[in-house]
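User: Before I run my own analysis I want an independent prediction to cross-check against. Here's the chain; please return only the structure tokens and, at the end, one sentence I can use as a sanity check.
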Amino acid sequence: MIKTTTLLKSSFWITYATFITRIFGFLSSLILARLLQPSDFGVVGIAYVFWSFFTLFTQDTAGAFIIYKGIENPKYVNTAYTISLLVGLSLALGVAGIAPFIAIFFQEPVLTGILIAFAFNLLLSSASYVYFGVMIRQMKYQAIANINLASSMTRLLFTIASAFLGMKYWSFIIGDTASWIVNCLLGKYYSKQQFRFQIDPQIKSEVLSFYLGAVGSSFGLYVNFNIDNFTVGKLLGSINLGYYNLAYQLTTVLSTIFSSVLNQLGMPIFAQLSDDQQQENALLTVVRETAIFTAPIYALIFIIIDPQVVTFIFGSKWIPICTVIPGLLIFSYFRVLNSSLYSMLVAKGRPDINAKVNLQMAPIAVFSFIFGAQQGGILGVSFAVAIVLGFSWTIYWWWVSCHKLGWSLKQFIYPIFLPLILIIPGVLISLYLPLFFRPFVLVISYTIFIRIFLPKYFYLSQTRLNQLSNHLIKKLSSR
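Assistant: Structure tokens:
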């Protein structure tokens, strides 16, 4: 049994590593938006759709198998490592082979060179994920955090330097490649694991079975999270995809951090709870408090980001992202809330429910994105994302899960949607006020409604703030 202090220490490093990776990625996008054109973002956005697909076969596969089986038996470790490298090499050759056809399909000749460069990164990632799997098994979370910091800084510096040198869309590829090289070298150094190029015939089938199962469970999630970029790139062109891609990055940076933390912390915590009732109560508490906390954050982003702010930060060429942001913010809010459900289902040994819902929603999402693009351009796609992957996916996922687990759907849906309802009056009032006053009015309005409709959690939050302030005062006075 893992000690509580060990779990808390590991949790801190997981959170730190996730935060560092996402913040540096966000800073990179922020600076590149000033230096590059929307078409540059669009071309790379198309390439990343295919990158995300092919990494299904390298991420959370061989590395996850090592976490599952351990590192004591070298036959398992070496077989998983060898298969991962062979898969990475096969994928790299496959990507290089189909790159010209993808470029023709999207009518973007430069995609050929970009995808060939990504093919090299696939080989690096195949080795890197295995090293990380070993370190996670060894619980070297601090080392992982240090590697993430080094690779993120490397990516930021190489990307920005390349952009200043006029490398355009190649800036992304150069930064990514430098980052993967650092990941791979430091992963090998910190893991201290000696690998051999070897496949044990008796273990091969077990590794491949786990490998294919991991890929299959991620496929539906990939379709739902990437087909909108694919649709925009194909039907609306690289410039529109550039607008959509930047808006997506801006609106999901927080949800990606929150989701990663909830997933990595939620799984071990939920799994240690003794019975079903405790798990249900814990999930309800997480959902309620996460919704109350995140709803005003996304509302603040919505009322602050307008054409004037976008022009000031990114330049007037990026004003079209303002129309896309509202729908993506709705999706991002629900993505955070659904992360806790995902963690619980994995902790209960029911990842099949996640896979089932993702695969069932995938064709609906594809149709809605195509319809949205044809009817309303990138605004139509963002609206489809909000309706299908926001509202509909959330209700259906929780309904299926509660039905399978014998829980009440109402007790979870109510705290998910209530903060959204309570934030609406403040949003509507704020939109008629000067930009400077909007955040204050929104926060005051939301606080009043929380006090009226959720008094228990209003006083609970007040108590926690008082405890935190008293703790800080004691720390300062003791120095």
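Sanity check: The mean pLDDT is 83.
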